Amino acid sequence: MKETFFKILKIFLVFLLIVLLILLLVVGARYVMGWSWGVVGFLLLGSLGIAVGALFLRKLWRRRQEQRFVQQVIAQDEAQLQSLAGKEKETYRELQDRWREAVETLQRSYLRKQGNPLYVLPWYLVIGESGSGKTTAIESARLSSPFAEFRRTSGLAGTRNCDWWFFEQAVILDTAGRYAIPVDEGRDKEEWQKFLNLLVKYRKKEPLNGLIVTIAADKLLGAPPESLDEEGRNIRRRIDELMRVLGAKVPIYVLVTKCDLIRGMSPFSDQLPAGSLDQAMGVLKKDFSAPPASFLDQIFEAIGERLRHFRILLFQQPVSKTFDPGIFLFPEEFGHLRQGLGHFMEAAFRENPYQETPILRGLYFSSGRQEGTPYSHFLKNLGLIGEKEVLPGTDKGLFLHDFFGKILPRERGLLTPTKRVMEWRTITRNLGLVAWIILGIAFSGLLFFSFLNNIEILKGIPSRFTQAGPLSGERMANLESLREFRDAVLEVEEKNRAWRLPRFGLDAGLQAERTLKDRYCVEFRKAFLDPHEQRMANLLARLPDSIPDGSVAFYVNHFVKRIHLLKERLAGKD
Asked: Can you say how many angstroms the Cα of residue 1 is from the centroid of all Cα atoms in its chain?
């Protein structure tokens, strides 16, 4: 309540200050400067334009302030690194070394012949819990690399922070599992943000082209719903941080790994042609607005139907001695993934009023190595689990090659700004446009009043003073005419001095003032100064040689005063 009161009081005081400033401007312009109400109105309009422009610049500045951490580099300097603890310093230094090594690798590659090597290929980021099979999936995809000696750049003992995979089709960034599911919440989250910081630093124009979220099939089948919900929420937080740092929404692909641990998956793949194992097993989401549940229903209906159709075909084939009957259970066992995926994907991708909704682009299923013990819901429910089957440990890389090599590269152009960024762009663009319009109207108004001021000055000049020969020739009449002429010149001069605003090139009033002054000088010289000079010359010519000293002193005093007056006038004095 107290906080609300002070907020309202602050708004009221700011409003009161604005009103006082407006009143001060109006009173000063109208009653002190003597400007017309029209000029005052356009001055207020110009002030409003400046205020809107200032608001635009303030929003721009605040946006830059929000993104300051994006523009920073994790590798600050040695002084900052020295302030860290030994292990933490080693981790950060290793992370920056990984990035520096990877960027140098790209810059040395043939990609520089096709443009900026950092942007020639799309970049994809892989996140997921430790042990979910991220690295195995990438390695088992068996994609070709143009420079095999640099295909992978990684830390010691697996993925400590980030592994780089350089393929002909894309650059894959394989992150440590603790980035997705933190072990030490504070330190791991900070390292994740530093990682995103580096990502934006090195690739500002197009930071990322897609995000791959991995989750293991055995976890979907065996973990409690609460655990899957929590993992989904952790992934959602990482996605939200990613979008806020990048200022963009990237397409997200959920990759279910270790599908060999589904009962019947391995014998099912044995029945497929060798070329089919490279194909991707999954579906791209066409309707981005559809909730995760309906998307899952669509996927499992489509894939389940094809699996059941394939099972019917197998029934028609002669059974070999090595035939595994578990293949007939595979469609139903595969369908049991639906429940676990529902919990995980609802937590990770459902729309809520507090976070930007990510783009769920697709769901795919894969198996890197065929090892471990498959799980069967069907046999467990029947109580028929006898001796557990152990897979032979092959590394066929099922349904991975085309996912990484074809589907992802085709999706490169799906990077879109977040709603927050688009709203900011709209607001700032509109503010800038409004500011320009208001300033344009104010400028036009001041230009118009400058024009009216010139017209008023020109109309106030008597026509007889703008024509040649305004003097009649009679001495007293000429003296009166010159007095009126002088008053007209002084009036024009006063009006020009009273106009304190910019003239914007409309200086007809000033030109009229100069012309009148020049003409006044010419008429004064013709009517008085030249005749006076002639009379003085004639008097001096008729002076006798024996003129009295008093008469000479009179003429000398006259010419000395005249010389002093001319010198002071030339010096700019009145």
From this structure: 36
Residues 369 and 309 in one domain: yes
Mean local confidence (pLDDT), 60-68: 53
pTM for the structure as a whole: 0.61
Same domain, 536 and 478: yes
- Shared domain check, 227 and 357: yes
Q: Are 174 and 185 in contact (CB under 8 A)?
A: no
Closest CA to 366 of 475, 507, 261, 456: 261
Considering the chain, what percentage of its residues have pLDDT values greater than 70?
66
Contact 209, 122 (CB under 8 A): yes
| Tens of pLDDT, residues 12-45 | 666 666 666 666 666 565 555 665 666 666 666 6
Q: Any idea what DSSP says for residue 572?
A: T
Q: Read off the DSSP letter of residue 113.
A: G
Pairing relationship of beta strands 281-284 and 248-249 according to DSSP bridges: unpaired
Q: The domain containing residue 557 runs over which residues?
A: 545-574
Do 529 and 570 have their domain in common? no
Q: Is the domain of 562 the same as that of 522?
A: no
The residues pairing with 355 across neighbouring beta strands, listed in sequence order, are 352
Decide if 72 contacts 197 (C-beta within 8 A).
Answer: yes
Q: What angle do CA 348, 349, 355 make, to 5 degrees?
A: 95
| Identity at 423, one-letter amino acid code | E
Query: Is 59 a member of any domain?
Result: no
**Cβ–Cβ under 8 Å, residues 284 and 244:** no
Among 253, 248, 169, 172, smallest CA distance to 211 is for 253
Question: Does an H or E element contain 435, and which?
Answer: helix 419-459
| pLDDT tens for each residue of 365-397 | 999 888 888 877 766 666 555 445 666 667 788
pLDDT tens for 306-343 read 999 888 887 777 655 556 677 888 898 899 999 999 99
Q: Do residue 209 and residue 332 come from a single domain? A: yes
Evaluate whether 224 touches 375 at the Cβ level (below 8 Å).
no
Question: Residue holding tokens 């094809």?
Answer: 306
What single-letter amino acid sits at 211? Answer: L
